[in-house]
Structures are given as C-alpha cells and as structure tokens.
Amino acid sequence: MVEPIFDYQFRLILIGDSTVGKSSLLKYFTDGKFAEVSDPTVGVDFFARLIEVRNGTRIKLQLWDTAGQERFRSITKSYYRNSVGALLVYDICNKESFDHIPDWMTEAKRYIEPHNPVFALVGCKLDLVRAGAAREVTEEEAKAFAQRHGIFHIETSAKTGLNVEQAFKAVTQEVFDRIQSGQYKIEDGWDGIKTGFSRPTHLDSNLVEAEPAKSSCC
Ligand code: GDP
Ligand code: MG
C-alpha cells in the first residue's frame, strides 16, 4: 500500500439539527455520491479526504460526523475539543434548523475553547428550492448572520453536489491561512491540526528507483 502523503491534517466537524443533511454532505464530499436513504443513528464516525489549498499544500481532512448524537443534543465534549473547524449546517427549507444555528455555534465555541475554530455556515438542500419547494430561509438573512460573525456562507445540495466542494474548501483554506499567519500552532495533545508525512523534495528524483528496491528487499 502506498502511504498517502500530506503536509497537514485538519480535523473538522459538522453540526446542526438532525436531518439537515450533514451525513449526506460528508458522503458526497468523500464519495461523490448521494445516498437517498440514510439512517441518522447508524453513521460512519469519520470520513477522510485529501485536498490541496491554493499554494499546492496537501491537506488531509478528517471529517467527523455526529452519527445521530445531535438528535438528543448529547454530543460529547471530546467531539468538539479536537476540532479546528466546524460547518454549521441548516436546511434551507426548515426555518427552525436555521434558528438553532446560534445555539450550535455557542456550544461549539464553548467546548472548542481555548482554541478558536473556523466556522462556515452551510445551507443544504438547495435542489429542493430549485425544484419548487418552499424556501424558509432567505439567502440574505443567512448572509447577514454570517457577516455579523465574520464567517463564510454558502448554499449547497448534497443531492446534486452543488457547492459541496466549495464549502469544505473554504474552511480548509481559512485554517491553512491561519497557520501561515501564525494564528494557529500545532500543539501536542490536540488533534485539531497535525503535521503529516511529506516527502522531502530533494528525494523526488530518486522516487522511481527507490520504491521497487524497497519492496523487493522486504
Ligand atoms: P443529518 O441528520 O443532518 O445527517 O441528515 P442526512 O444527511 O441524514 O439527511 C437527512 C435526509 O435529507 C435524508 O433523507 C437525505 O436523503 C435528505 N437530504 C440530505 N441532503 C439533501 C439535499 O441536499 N437535497 C435533498 N433533496 N435531500 C437531502
Ligand atoms: Mg447524520
């Protein structure tokens, strides 16, 4: 097996009311697929995907799903504590899910402290609106909320995949920018940001010869 090479690992979480589309967003982002039936309580705990930020640095995203815990507001503190970013997800056709976003944000801030996470506000199920369903959250009110908190906002569909990539990319880029500016540091005992495996560039020219030699000897 080839060791995946990445420069950093970021751990991100998705939070928001039950049924807003969190697991579907994760599935689409990591699998490129939409699964019509999804049981909220039987979930994969985490997903992973490698992406690149603008300067080509490779980031492995470790993406944690609530696996149904959000139904009972019983999300464990450790779920939050080791995260560097959180996608706050609401359903565009469900006003209540948007009204609960401040609560989710407050809870995440409280448990992620002393770290200061990157948030993004993500409206899901845009395909339903486009198919004629009633929109309950306007783009303007969501944008206004995001602006007040200085966070990124985007409307997506986990069904068609529209803007899914952009939502995760925005958070990843912002975390990376904060590392570059010195605002974030890698800390022992905290899994929000970790350094990964990266091959020193001076070895790249030896790559083709070096690898078969290794596998034939061991
Ligand atoms: P979670 O509880 O937040 O993880 O939500 P799920 O991802 O389990 O989705 C709840 C329900 O909404 C499921 O029936 C999904 O198939 C459906 N769903 C999720 N995202 C979308 C979307 O973007 N468009 C449509 N039409 N349905 C979606
Ligand atoms: Mg789920």
Question: Any overview of this molecule?
Answer:
By secondary structure, this protein is of the alpha/beta class. The chain has one domain: P-loop containing nucleotide triphosphate hydrolases (Rossmann fold). It is 35% helix and 20% strand. It has eight helices and seven strands; from the N terminus they run βαββαβααβααβαβα. Strands 1, 2, 3, 4, 5, 6 and 7 form a seven-stranded mixed sheet that branches. A hairpin with a 5-residue loop joins strand 2 (46-52) and strand 3 (58-64). It binds guanosine-5'-diphosphate and magnesium ion (MG). The site of magnesium ion (MG) has 5 residues, from helix 1.
Indicate the topology.
Layout lengths: L7 E8 L6 H10 L14 E7 L5 E7 L12 H5 L3 E7 L3 H5 L1 H12 L5 E7 L1 H5 L8 H11 L2 E4 L8 H17 L12 E3 L11 H11 L1
Parallel strand pairs: 1-3, 1-4, 4-5, 5-6
Antiparallel strand pairs: 1-7, 2-3
The chain binds guanosine-5'-diphosphate and magnesium ion.
Magnesium ion binds next to helix 1.
Poorly predicted tracts of residues: 204-218
Global mean pLDDT: 87
Q: Which geometry do the CA atoms define?
A: globular
Helix percentage range: 25-40%
CATH C-level label = Alpha Beta
The CATH topology turns out to be: Rossmann fold
Major sheet summary line: 7 strands, mixed
Tell me what portion of residues adopts beta-strand conformation: 15-25%
Q: Which small-molecule species are bound to the chains here?
A: guanosine-5'-diphosphate, magnesium ion
Helix/strand-derived category reads alpha/beta
Tell me the total number of β-strands. 7
